[in-house]
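Hi team,

Filling in the usual template for the complex we talked about on Friday. All components are listed, including any nucleic acid strands or ligand strings, so the model treats them as one assembly.

SUBMITTER: L.P.
PURPOSE: interface mapping
COMPONENTS: two
RESIDUES: 231
SEQUENCES:
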Amino acid sequence: AQSVTQLGSHVSVSEGALVLLRCNYSSSVPPYLFWYVQYPNQGLQLLLKYTTGATLVKGINGFEAEFKKSETSFHLTKPSAHMSDAAEYFCAVLSNYGQNFVFGPGTRLSVLP
Amino acid sequence: GAGVSQSPRYKVAKRGQDVALRCDPISGHVSLFWYQQALGQGPEFLTYFQNEAQLDKSGLPSDRFFAERPEGSVSTLKIQRTQQEDSAVYLCASSHRDYRGTSTDTQYFGPGTRLTVL
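RESULT (copied from the run log):
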C-alpha cells in the first residue's frame, strides 16, 4: 500500500525567501504524484502533478517539484515566497488501482512580512 | 456550475442524529470521490463512484456510513447515528474520466462540508 509523509507540519518563511516543502512516498508501483493547496474554507486545488516523463514539473503560481526516484521524494519549491502563498499544502500519491488519492498529513505554510 | 459544489457547508448534529451531505460534481464528470478530513490531517479516502456504480467503498469507516449516486450525477453521503468521532470536513471530488488502468485525470475538489457532532 502507498503512503506519504510530509516533514514539518508547519513551515514559516519570510516574504521573498525560498519555499521548500518536503514530501516522501512509498509505493510498490511507479508512482503518480501530486501537490494540492488548500486555502481556508476552500477545497483543494491542484498545484502540479508528476505522471511520466520529465522529472521536474512546473505548476501554477510559480511552484515546481522534482521527482527523485532514488530518494522516493517529490519536494515542492518556489524561489520567492509571496504572502498569498500562505495555505495548507498536501502531497498525494495515486493509489495502486489508479483511483483515489493517498494524502500526506499536510504542511501549513506561513509567510512572514 | 463551474466547479464541484457541496451542501450544506456547515452541519451541526447531536450525537445519534442522522445526517445527509450532498455533492454536485462538475457536469459530465464520470468519477466521483468522497474523502474525510479530520482536523489537522490530510484527507482520507472513503468511497468512489464511476457513474452510478459504487466501485470502491473500502474507506467507509463503519456501516453507519452510506453513499449513493443513483443517476450518476449528484451524490449523497449519509451518516447514521452520528458519533463525535465523525466530526470532520467531508470533501467531494470529481473527474472527467473513469479510472481503468492508471488514468491520472485531475480530480476537482469541492469546498467541503464541515460536520460537527456534539
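MY TAKE: The two ends of chain A are 41 Å apart (CA to CA). The mean pLDDT of chain A is 91.

Thanks, L.
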